[in-house]
């Protein structure tokens, strides 16, 4: 019996140590026009077509060494009741475009159980999703880009201009990921912003994600 109790205690300590072991977050915003304009296509959520704005993909704990923790606490499952007051905002700002059309629950479950559980030393489930929503509002990237004349109009823009515009807004250089459409055009797809472990402040990225983009990229319509 004592052995069993000790084993449970060690397992709990292991889960806690894994959950606390991260150095920063990647806050990842996705352009829906690029997601849909690819060989994978997309499906609008059951609430309808999202707004033509960057949507939240995730808030991901990472290591300075370049790796990341995941699925840190199998006992901590997503519970929509814990974020019921955020549901309208999640549907609007953190939508899913995966097929078949769905209500987003599977997507949010995945984000919490794979990534959010690894930040439980800092954020509970409600705080985790609320932090993502606040960060999107704080960055307000589409507003910044359009004010700089960089618009989702299917035209091509210099990558350096996109990077510099975002850096001016958040104070730090972003990581940018592009994808290819059916014509092999390089498109603005995802933007990575680095955030401190409290998920409240943008910081300089300890390590940049490996995103491949041409020197000029298309900002597709949605």
TrEMBL record:
Alphabetical list of Pfam families matching this protein: Ribonuclease_T2 (PF00445)
GO MF, one example: RNA binding
A Gene Ontology cellular-component term: extracellular region
Lineage: superkingdom: Eukaryota
Record keywords, A-Z: Disulfide bond, Endonuclease, Hydrolase, Lyase, Nuclease, Signal
Metal-binding is among the record's keywords: no
GO terms of biological process kind: RNA catabolic process
Annotated signal sequence range: 1-19
Active site per the UniProt annotation: 57, 111, 115
Protein role: May remobilize phosphate, particularly when cells senesce or when phosphate becomes limiting.
Sequence similarity: Belongs to the RNase T2 family.
Name of the protein: Ribonuclease T2-like superfamily
Organism (species): Arabidopsis thaliana x Arabidopsis arenosa
Lineage: Eukaryota, Viridiplantae, Streptophyta, Embryophyta, Tracheophyta
